[in-house]
Amino acid sequence: MNAERSRGGTETRDNRENREVCEKRLEGWVRAYGTAILRTCFVCLSDRQAAEDAMQETFLKAWKAMDSFQGRNGAGEKTWLMHIAMNVCRDMQRTRWFRHIDMRRALEDIPQGVASVLPEDRSLLMDIMSLPDKYKQPIMLYYYQDMTIEETAEVLCISKSTVHSRLRKAEGMLRLALKGGDCYV
Questions:
Q1: Hey, what domains does the chain have and what are their CATH numbers?
Q2: Which of 34-43, 72-81, 143-152, 170-179 is the least confident region?
Q3: Contact at 8 Å (CB) between 66 and 26?
C-alpha cells in the first residue's frame, strides 16, 4: 500500500513537472508567435474580436496537442501553429454570422500592436483582404509571415507548385486592383 502511495506521489510530481514544462513552452510560443498569428487571423477573418478568439483557440488547440507535435518533415513550431490557426479561421468562416462582415470597417478594427497601417498601405491591405481565401492565405504566409514556399505549402496542405501558382495569380489580381480594375479575375 505504501509503495502505491509513493508511486502515486511520484506520478503526480512528474505530471506537475511535465505540465510546468508545457506551460513554459506555450508561453514561449505565445511570446514568439502571438502577434503573427493574430495578424494572420485578422486578415483572414476581417474582424478584431474574431481574430482574437481565433488566436486563443489556436493556442488552446496547440496546448491540447503539444505532446503530438514532433516537427514532422522538418516543420517548425511556427509552421505547425500557423496550420492550426488557418484551420481555426476556416472553421470560424463556416459559421452563419461570419458571412455578414463589412470589409470597409475591418482596418478600423486592427488590434493595437498588430499593424500600423500607413495611408499608402491601406489600399493594398484592403485589396489583399478582399482576395478569395485560396489566394489571400499564401500571400499572408509567404509575404507577411516570411514563410518559405515549402512551409506555406505545409500549412495550407497543398503542393509547392500550387503555392507558387496561387502567389503569382494573387499578385496579378493585386496588380490589376491597384491599377483600378476589379480584384477578382
A1: 1-116 (1.10.1740.10), 118-185 (1.10.10.10)
A2: 72-81
A3: yes
